[in-house]
Hints:
Largest sheet: 20 strands, antiparallel
Order of helices and strands: HEEEEEEEEEEEEEHEHEEEHHEEE
Distance between the termini: 66 Å
Radius of gyration: 24 Å
Low-confidence stretches: none
Number of helices: 5
Strand content: over 45%
Mean pLDDT: 91
Structural class: alpha+beta
Amino acid sequence: MRALLIAILVVAGLWAGYWVVGSRAMESNVERWFAAPHGGLVATRGDVSVSGFPNRFDLTVTDPSLADPERGWGWRAPFAQVFVMTWKPWHLIAALPQEQLIDTPQGPVTLRSSQLEGSLVVIPGTALALDRTVLSGEGLSLGGEAGWEVSAAKATFATRLMPDDAMAHEVGFDATTVTPDARFRMALSSRSDLPEQIERLHLDAVATLTAPLDRFSAQNTPRLAQVRVRQGLLRWGDMVISATGTVQPDANGQAEGRIDLRVENWRQLVPVLVASGVITAEVSPTVIRAMELLSQQGDDPAVLTVPLAFQSGRMSLGPLPLGPAPRLN
């Protein structure tokens, strides 16, 4: 009995020592990271603390801030927390505050949520390659200084490393009960009987990078090489839009490629294009006639199959020009 008690005390002492060493290492590594140069990225923080003895490392950073002044991007929050099980240090779980501020080239955006959590898993080893991530939230809203706001009842974003390609990740996104901005809804209500809320947004894609996402990413600088959309879906009232296709960045970093769209009850799409400012009300009859001609080439005139094309820095929906192509890199 005495020997058993001694063994228990020894194991407990070793475990306590492991936790103390691990917590101090985590705290010093975080402090070192914030103090180190990151190219054009400016990182600041308030206090750093680690708790959770004996089974977790609970890291709390107050007032974290990341900013890229040259490009106009940044992120600020009152705190960020990361939880790590002591026996599984390659699996990180994060809890984020209900309000965060995101700086964009178009101005600051506030992200609010009733709950926002994430997790990140790396592959154990020297490279610590990214295996999978999940970010999920409820009661989400995104609003800008100009007064616009978009919300969703629930949204989930997830990635997973492809088993046969170290530079490709499956990417999934799903959002339900999405409410567009009030001004857009007001502009749309006079032209369409679509409901105020979008029932579902869904994306299933594969993103291929130029280098793996691992601990050497700062030196290798992974960039997006290709996005293959396996399934895209928007379900809004009786209008359903599905999408498949592939795009990649051109020499200037703008999207090049094609996404094939299938639009059920396509006539509902034209008021959406007008309300969002993509086309004017004056040209909408011309757009409707063009879409009628395209839809008559299929079996069902209520279904429109049309390419969303990205070429030479421009974007078009079938014969309809939409403006500059989005930048991928």
